[in-house]
Amino acid sequence: MSYTIQAQARTEIGKGSSRRLRHAAKVPAVIYGKGKEPVSIVFDHKDIINIQANEDFYTSTLTIVVDGKDVGVRVQAMQRHVFKPIIEHVDFVYA
Question: What architecture (CATH level 2) is domain 4-94?
Fold first, then answer.
């Protein structure tokens, strides 16, 4: 199964801006990989909360559309809230 997530590039980085994004129901994330420049992104929480429940989400290649450009990625790490069903941050690696 293929998954596609719509995202926007982030210009503000840091703890304060990440908190503001989370309060606005957004998920801050980063895409990185060997030989490529890391890209900070943000997407809606509702876009990932349901698809991350599937097993193949963690093993398959995902497509993230960053400002109109398709990027193939895999999930490297995901931070979740301690007791709420909220995803706080996702690390993706280029596929």
Answer: Beta Barrel (2.40)
Backbone phi and psi for residue 62, each to the nearest 5 degrees, phi listed first: -100, 160
How many Å apart are CA 45 and CA 25, to the nearest integer? 6
Q: Where exactly are the structural domains of the chain? A: 4-94
Alpha carbon distance 41, 47 (integer Å):
14
Tell me, yes or no, if the pTM score tops 0.70.
Answer: yes
The set of residues, in sequence order, having a beta carbon less than 8 Å from that of 64 and lying 6+ positions away, is: 4, 5, 7, 31, 41, 43, 70, 71, 73, 92
Query: What's the alpha-carbon Rg for the chain, to the nearest Å?
Result: 13
Write the pLDDT tens digit of every residue in 62-80: 999 998 899 999 999 999 9
